[in-house]
Amino acid sequence: MSGGVFVAVDGPGGAGKSTLVRNLDQRLTAAGIPVLATTEPSHSPLGKFARHHTGDYQGMALACLVGADRYHHLETEVRPAVAAGRVVLCDRYTLSTVVLQAGIDDVPEQFVRCINADAEPPDLQIVLTAPSRVLRERLAVRGSHGRFEDDPTVPDREVELYRKAAAASERAGVPTMVADTSQGLASIESLLSRLTSIIGGLWSQ
């Protein structure tokens, strides 16, 4: 992909991904940078089906649903937006798939990576994290978004799995930023200026 910038934001449930994407969209737009804020699973019928049926589909079946939605999302939204010179902010991407499908749902990681082999890496990978206790407290207030957030033991596993996934992303040559959001909105606010500057610099190159 060329022209714009593709930014992926991943991390455990309750880490603040949607909040960061929403506020970063506003900051970049105010700076005159064209933005597409999106999410995975996407808002397409296939993406909505995958998002709302994590209790009905598990393992390889769900991994294939998520992968199919990803390729449709890339083809119909992400690649055209980047080619048009926009900054794409994606709430969850391939790192979430590796963590949730391989790490939590016990799908062989090789299978997961094979399904996603033709999904290009982002220009910038952001991984949000927080202590598992904080994540559980936030999820209790916000409510669950699906099967992966119903199990109170998942945040402990996610924190470690995302730490490993972020390290693997770095080793693969993807510019990766890990940020602790344990201070809530104050943590997000401190990130916004840094990210607006970094992404603005990538976009203007």
TrEMBL record:
Pfam families: Thymidylate_kin. SUPFAM superfamilies: P-loop containing nucleoside triphosphate hydrolases (SSF52540). It catalyses: dTMP + ATP = dTDP + ADP. InterPro entries: P-loop_NTPase, Thymidylate_kin-like_dom, Thymidylate_kinase. Keywords: ATP-binding, Kinase, Nucleotide biosynthesis, Nucleotide-binding, Transferase. The keyword Ribonucleoprotein does not apply. It comes from the Bacteria. It is an enzyme of class 2 (transferase). Its EC number is 2.7.4.9. Residues 9-149 form the Thymidylate kinase-like domain. One of its GO terms (molecular function) is dTMP kinase activity. HAMAP family: Thymidylate_kinase. This is Thymidylate kinase. It comes from Nocardiopsis sediminis.
